[in-house]
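ok so for the tutorial part 2 we go from a plain amino acid sequence to predicted structure tokens. step 1 is just haveing the sequence, like this:
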Amino acid sequence: MIGGVTAPRLMLLDSASLYFRAYFGVPDTLRSPQGEPVNAVRGLLDFIARLVHDHRPDQLVACMDAAWRPQWRVDLIPSYKTHRVAEAAEDGAEEVPDTLAPQVPVIEQVLDALGIARIGSADYEADDVIGTLTARATGPVQIVTGDRDLFQLVDDARAVTVLYPVKGMGNLQVTDDALLREKYGVGGAQYADLAALRGDPSDGLPGVKGIGEKTAAQLIHEYGDLAGIRAAAQDIGSALTPARRRNILEAAAYLDVAPTVVRVAADAPLPPFDPALPREPLDPMTLEHLATRWGLGTSLDRVLETLAAR
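step 2 — the prediction. this is what the tokens look like for a chain of 310 residues:
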């Protein structure tokens, strides 16, 4: 509460993470009147309806990847997300299933017509938009994502939690500092250091040889943070084993840049926008057209009913 006014509850959607999950989790038998798959569109709408109903945010922002593989991250670690680049794509585009790619513009049009804020930032990932909006927030923040990288934003002192789908959107793990310490041995503030040390093959991050999740957590516990671990490696009097010391020192070039790549930005430039969750659609005529054209049916109805009932 600030000056006697309750700060708004903000929900941030990692949009691509969620529509990918919808695409793979909802049968592609859901089709438009013309026969095109709309499983990702309808699945995401179902997710939004459930999230708003269950968690009652005051503000909702669909955070988008303006750049899914920003050049500044690639410049630091060239292997960053290389495995996700479509082999046939000359422009380095992310590999997206053939029947998902045409649904993304529909998702964007529907969100815009509903009046749900949809925000990206040139040369930044959705994670960076989420990091920036979290840094700016004055009240509780719930981040909805299937990406563990965003655990680094968890902060009990600021009421920042991650809603992480365990099995579908009906079973969301409410990730706070206590849960992170129980599962990973570190809190949110230390998670990025753990991720840098451990590495992540799915993001093309090599990590440090011989250091997995448990060892990374143990080292952070003993030496405080990545800087402390690197200082211990330089100190021949520290308790590090010779092999561990050698591996950390040999990874110096990687560790010089990994924190910048792994940590989400807190200062991405964002356009002006209204995060308030609408009670009625911003553009009902366009929304009606989209509903008819794409056969959005009960999925859109549920979103509209949930928004109106707030």
